[in-house]
Amino acid sequence: MSALTPGSETSPKAVENVEGITVRLAGDSGDGMQLLGTQLTNTSALLGNDIATFPDFPAEIRAPRGTRAGVSGFQVQFASNEIFTPGDVLDALVAMNPAALVTNINDLRPGGLLIVNLDGFNEKEYKLAKVKSNPLDDPRLRERYRVTEIAMTSLTRDAVAELGLGMKEADRCKNFFAMGLVYWLFGRPLDPTLRFIAAKFGKKPDVAVANEKALRAGWAFGETTEAFATSYQVEPAQLESGTYKNMMGNQALAWGLLAAAQRSGKELFYGTYPITPASDILHELTKFKNFGVRTFQAEDEISAIGATIGAAFGGTMAVTASSGPGIALKAEAMGLGVMLELPMIVIDVQRGGPSTGLPTKTEQADLLQLMFGRNGEAPVPILAPQSPADCFQIAQEAWEIAVQSMVPVVILSDGYIANGSEPWKIPDVSKMAPIEVSHPGPRAEGDEPFLPYLRDENLARPWAIPGTEGLMHRVGGLEKEDRTGNVSYDPDNHQHMVNTRQRKIDDIAKRLPLQTVFGPEKGDILVVSWGGTYGACHTAVRRCQNQGMSVAHAHVRYLNPLPANLGELLASYQTVLVPELNSGQLCMLMRAKFLVDCIGINKVKGKPFTISELVEKISGYAVDQPPVVNTHNKTDKRVQSKAG
Amino acid sequence: MSALTPGSETSPKAVENVEGITVRLAGDSGDGMQLLGTQLTNTSALLGNDIATFPDFPAEIRAPRGTRAGVSGFQVQFASNEIFTPGDVLDALVAMNPAALVTNINDLRPGGLLIVNLDGFNEKEYKLAKVKSNPLDDPRLRERYRVTEIAMTSLTRDAVAELGLGMKEADRCKNFFAMGLVYWLFGRPLDPTLRFIAAKFGKKPDVAVANEKALRAGWAFGETTEAFATSYQVEPAQLESGTYKNMMGNQALAWGLLAAAQRSGKELFYGTYPITPASDILHELTKFKNFGVRTFQAEDEISAIGATIGAAFGGTMAVTASSGPGIALKAEAMGLGVMLELPMIVIDVQRGGPSTGLPTKTEQADLLQLMFGRNGEAPVPILAPQSPADCFQIAQEAWEIAVQSMVPVVILSDGYIANGSEPWKIPDVSKMAPIEVSHPGPRAEGDEPFLPYLRDENLARPWAIPGTEGLMHRVGGLEKEDRTGNVSYDPDNHQHMVNTRQRKIDDIAKRLPLQTVFGPEKGDILVVSWGGTYGACHTAVRRCQNQGMSVAHAHVRYLNPLPANLGELLASYQTVLVPELNSGQLCMLMRAKFLVDCIGINKVKGKPFTISELVEKISGYAVDQPPVVNTHNKTDKRVQSKAG
Amino acid sequence: MNLPVLKATDFASDQDIRWCPGCGDYSILAQMKKVLPELGVPREKIVFISGIGCSSRFPYYMNTYGMHSIHGRAPTFATGLKTTRQDLMVWVITGDGDALSIGGNHFIHVLRRNLDINIVLFNNRIYGLTKGQYSPTSVEGQVTKSTPMGAIDHPLNPLSVAIAAEATFVARSVDANVKHLGEILKRAAEHKGTSLVEVYQNCNVFNDGAMNYAQSRDLRDDHTVELEHGKPLIFGKDRDKGIRLVGGRIEVVNTSDVPADDLLIHDEKSKDSTLHYMLSRMRYPDFPEPIGVFRDVQGVATYDDQINAQITQAKQIRGPGDLQKLFNSGDTWQVA
Amino acid sequence: MNLPVLKATDFASDQDIRWCPGCGDYSILAQMKKVLPELGVPREKIVFISGIGCSSRFPYYMNTYGMHSIHGRAPTFATGLKTTRQDLMVWVITGDGDALSIGGNHFIHVLRRNLDINIVLFNNRIYGLTKGQYSPTSVEGQVTKSTPMGAIDHPLNPLSVAIAAEATFVARSVDANVKHLGEILKRAAEHKGTSLVEVYQNCNVFNDGAMNYAQSRDLRDDHTVELEHGKPLIFGKDRDKGIRLVGGRIEVVNTSDVPADDLLIHDEKSKDSTLHYMLSRMRYPDFPEPIGVFRDVQGVATYDDQINAQITQAKQIRGPGDLQKLFNSGDTWQVA
Ligand SMILES: Cc1ncc(C[n+]2csc(CCOP(=O)(O)OP(=O)(O)O)c2C)c(N)n1
Ligand SMILES: Cc1ncc(C[n+]2csc(CCOP(=O)(O)OP(=O)(O)O)c2C)c(N)n1
Ligand code: SF4
Ligand code: SF4
Ligand SMILES: [Mg+2]
Ligand SMILES: [Mg+2]
Questions:
Q1: Which residues pair with B474 in a beta bridge?
Q2: Which chain D positions have a beta carbon within 8 Å of C314's beta carbon?
């Protein structure tokens, strides 16, 4: 259901209604494409469209102007129906220079709209972009796409001329010109952006005025130019009623942690060391000092988790976060957290690996690191959000599990979720249920001795905090004696504690919701996914269903322990497909645990799945598959403890 | 086939021939039990017995005298037949004090010989050992065992009286008295120990003489006392002909590394940070400076592996080692090693975990940490020695794989292997084949450009070392471009490199020996084991076979990649049992890869398996098991890449 | 409220002590138990955090809250605890390997942040728990299990490094000098900000007598000089030797030849740390090694005070956080 | 053999440079390319090892061997390489976060070992690559992405810490002062032992002008003082101000009031590091900040020399290792 089709060019300035539009704004890092994208996103959200965005930053801070490495892109899909991804192919591409054009053109669908800033095209730019000649001269371009060349820079200069700004200042406004043009093209109102300009540049009135003029000029240009015969209209989407806000994943995580702290009557401690793409959580949380949030930028990741454990020992809600390489450094301390049985959250915002890898790209290849990357048997619960807005939810669930089971809980996010955004329905704070947390009270000399490793029905030990009279006790990384927590080298005690720490994690499954599926309860194909691939998988499965295939989708948010009914589910389908942005990590865990011949759909390119590639893969299995073997009923129990 | 049976007490001073004897010498850390044990071991080895030892150190350096925590034990089995473990139950126990008695008596078999140093038994000692009264007064003791009480301390004093030493010095000799007694009892010659005394105490003649007198006094006492009617004789074992030496695991690892260096014409660099039980490798290697061995005691484990990678970059044979907690700290740098594709060895001498765990105890729970404990997809080969002497072999194999595939190779040893010992057949150095290592030569200006990531048939890149003209290149942790090794953010290149790094590991299986089994090619039960449990598993399987069960044993020395034929093997048996000193780690890997319902026999008590407990477990499965599902032929290929 | 008066024994836990007989750790433990009651802080308000090492077993023997953490990282746990729980008195117990080898980075960073905790560094110049490898404070040429031909590293001077890392309280004492040790521990506890106390501790098993010159009664007077604020540096059995400063350099003089007020007068309060640094460079055998408080500078903001001050300030300026208000801030839209 | 004479351009790799336009890193790169040919070391004998950060991209731009390693660990890779390959000239390129935050421990240990390498620390007082969080050298109160209300950590003084960590060569230069920078890099290369050069480097994107007082032509003369061995410390546009030492303390004087030989004469060779430490404490705005070589002490054994000396010595004493002899040593027995 594409939006812009050449055939639609009938009456001049016609307005055409379309279901959804995917636009990418691409230019030099200096051209302000991220700002343009964010504005377009918010404006569309305010219009009531469903939205999904995906920014694509250059790997360098400011790669040299005009180079391919310096291209910064922002993709947004806005639609009148429910959408789950920023879109596979572009309906429209705005390219501010040759580098932006050549690096993005392949994502523009045939017949799609290409808008270029003609002033950005000259010999100097060709050299920088490493293209021999002007790419616009390539005849195939006009055969394939609807190309519109606009001298945005000069038009912007004219628009702001009367203000007598320097040329530099004037040229800086050109992204607002582009914005105005795009707004006209897709029937977006100017007011939200005008408000933004007023707020942001209030202190520099002349800049504010210039940007506003550029914006209006862009709009006017669309209105008047011959270049565009049609503009396009996207009706509001039918979202669940409520008040909405556009949310990025890292922001949602930060806010979710805030909510969890408030729900449990705790103040938040956040210990971290900056690393892409996790740093923004720190930048967000450190704004909330008036919420009692203490952020600690440590000297390294080990110090960050050490401080987190220390704060947890003191009775605070403590959280640490990093990305793959930093998580590796936290491994030893996480093991201590498991031994101490203190509640805390460890967040991994995954990026391309191994080693330094592809820091600005997305990947899901840290699952096994978090499952097994510690010495000895040291199991921890692992949760993964399925979308930017879901981060708000997952953060609170993670804390609930942490305090109920007295254990460090892992949240596996990724770069795609962290920087992507979608509408988030603002909850009613007054209706948020409290998260129960209790600390044992003081004891007098006479009372029976305090047992720091005596367990409750969840196998959780009491969270006794320093300052409490009579509860003085020592914790540490040496094996502890059951109940007393004293150091113990007793062989049977060690076995008992190893088993208990595992059972404590396994038991969490009893308290978690059962796995649901989207689609038939049983059938040919079950697609099992986790984390940021939710949107692509869900949409792909829906398409396949519409094409009449017998396929269902189970998106797993709880990776350890796995949902209690997952084994049964897998058994109800002929084929189990597991799309992952890694080489098959969840796939391996499920094969081991359930002895089901799960088949991986794997992509490790630093990029999310496209819907169409998934549809294609799934379709490939839609016809007569060999029956899958399933012996999980026989082996489930025994194997469970082993998967730890 | 036990050795000492009461029935055998016939004629006075009879000499009885027995197949094998298991003795444990237990006393205070200060009592020199380790020395006594080592001497008894060497003497028995020199007699031609097969031997296996297992020391049991206290967790503390010198836990307070007389306490249970302070008990130090040394167990040795010497036999006329081939043995693979230090023995399950004791034929004889020497206890120098109450603490040693109460903490060890349960391992003495009924009818076994208990020899105590009576002088070590008094009120003060009872308090220290936390026993209410004299444990020797417990009638059950004499019912169950053959108890001999000897005032070793006073007898020793008498023996050395004429030398006029201080009482302290005199008492220090009492372990030699015990030694003499034990030697007489088991028909061991004194000479090797006399030689040892001369060498060790040469500088302190009076001490030397005193120890010798004590030793002879002990022997004489056995000869004359009424207490012993019989002494025991153990004939030489039928070992493969050659010259032998008693070897401990860590020493064998060190010597194996030396051999590998010599075979590949390299000097050895060993970067490490001390940690139990890996430290002794450092202590051993640092003696070999005249072999060109450079040992670097780093400031921490990260520095240790960093230096190792740096040395590897320079063209040296580089090795690092640690135990669980230190290995966790190396995770990030190991990932870099995988990216740089440089040859090196990473040794993990496993100990009880998680966290600080049980530092002096053994465990096999780091397998999954080494498989998966890095960010992103970062596969490495993993080898595990099966016994102390095998460490010599495995070190050389590891280096061969490292240079053939240009990759960090992991060796998984454990505390049991590291401190245990067995006879090692001394190889003929002149017959050791060279390990081929090549470095690309210099290039002049004109030559075609050097491609640092161009691969050979093993997918190995060239090991180009600094100092070589014209090969200047830069390596690093960011994803590399195929062939050139330049930084690349290209999606397809990333996929290609991730796949290639995995394939490089998988391909190693083609060059490794196929998995062999001990026992029937197909049948009811296959026992699959790895690492230090070899001896117990092998012996247990042999016993089961002798009892007529259809059971075979496959001991896996190559854990990643797994042997090419392993899947087929598993399919040839009704039941696959996997004994591990963890909660089922290899078991999980095989289940995932081969979809075979492997069943774990798991023990996490900081102690090795006993043969009898394995026999019992195996027997439990010896009767009609459900057929195991096996679909590995269908899935092998596809899953292979995922198990990485 | 009037606290129950506690005795040293009230601070003993029920765990058996597992150090070697004769280990210097015992006397440090004894002094700690003796000093704590004098501070009037209830046991439940005190936390001992250690890394790994013989010395780091310390917390198990104290009847307070405690954490035997992981090797080298104790200061990090203390940082999280103290910044969130300023009401607690936090002690870090560490060794020369724990603090200066694997833990060197956390060591300098906690000092520069001036977190209000007390660090006691048990310096035995050896790795005790791992049975005798050399440590960053082992002397050059020292033969140990890992250095059969002698250590080739130039040792780290813990106090020089601490002073250079902006430490506000730096002191040294000796296990055998129990009275002095007790006083110094007390001084450390009283200082606001990070207090570092290096204690010369004898490992009689793996490095016996390494610091005998500072420990034995008949040597220590001639080879150590006790620092006292505002007093000249005088030492020697007969207190006949003194320290003088000439041209920014230190020299040993006979008190008989030099008038007392020409001697170096100790100023532990000096903000400028150069003089304290100079004292830390005085090394046996060339110089008597100073014991006592090298530096005690008050009034430098502590990390825990500052982080909490920002919280209070933020609450004053923006009012206590209102989640609903935050959620509704910025661009939002209604769906009916 | 006579080496081909190389030009700066011969040291440029084929990779596009990816720093922000205007970044101070460019001038350091330029000076390095200019200095190397003067050292007469062939390109293949030179290795640049870096950690992670904008600055750590440096090796990619040099046509030598190089390793872009992991964050903070560059000195460790250099240690393994230099101890096994003394024939190579090894440079470590690092940033204030890389060297002093995550890498602080390796930093002090490589210095105390006096490994014969050269460390260039690009100090821009910010985390550049991660887009602008404060670093251990950021000034107190600095507002950054991670410190909206101002940084509360007391900054580390890299040179004080280095000197306290037994460094044998310590220097400072400024990106904008290209001539001086070139000379200092050369001095560092010539020193045997670990050479540390701190370079004030402008991050014009996230911390623009933070060290402008030392960079801008019209400020730097009044706010920096150039150290020259054996010369008095004189500074100021009109060289009318000087530094004097009184009672172990430093003060600024007018050269007109004070005879030149009363001024502090710089002695970079002094084994005693106290004076060098004192110079490192001179901070803007109270004092002019010294640039140039603070300390250059020769003759201190290097780690790589010593480890290799022990190898040679062992071979002399025991003869080259004989594997078969080793295997047959100690107790052995025959089985027929
Ligand atoms: C990560 C890690 N690395 C290494 C070790 C082994 N280890 C334990 S204590 C120690 C050093 C002890 O020396 P020190 O800190 O001086 O304490 P001491 O025993 O001398 O009191 C080492 C290397 C460990 N436990 N954990
Ligand atoms: C283990 C790890 N932690 C964190 C990061 C993220 N990171 C990369 S560079 C950097 C700091 C850069 O600051 P600096 O060392 O001063 O270099 P600059 O960019 O300022 O030149 C950080 C935190 C990382 N790459 N690896
Ligand atoms: S080894 Fe040394 S430091 Fe450790 S307890 Fe024994 S004497 Fe004390
Ligand atoms: S961010 Fe700063 S340090 Fe990094 S390249 Fe840009 S200007 Fe230079
Ligand atoms: Mg020590
Ligand atoms: Mg920086």
A1: D66
A2: 149
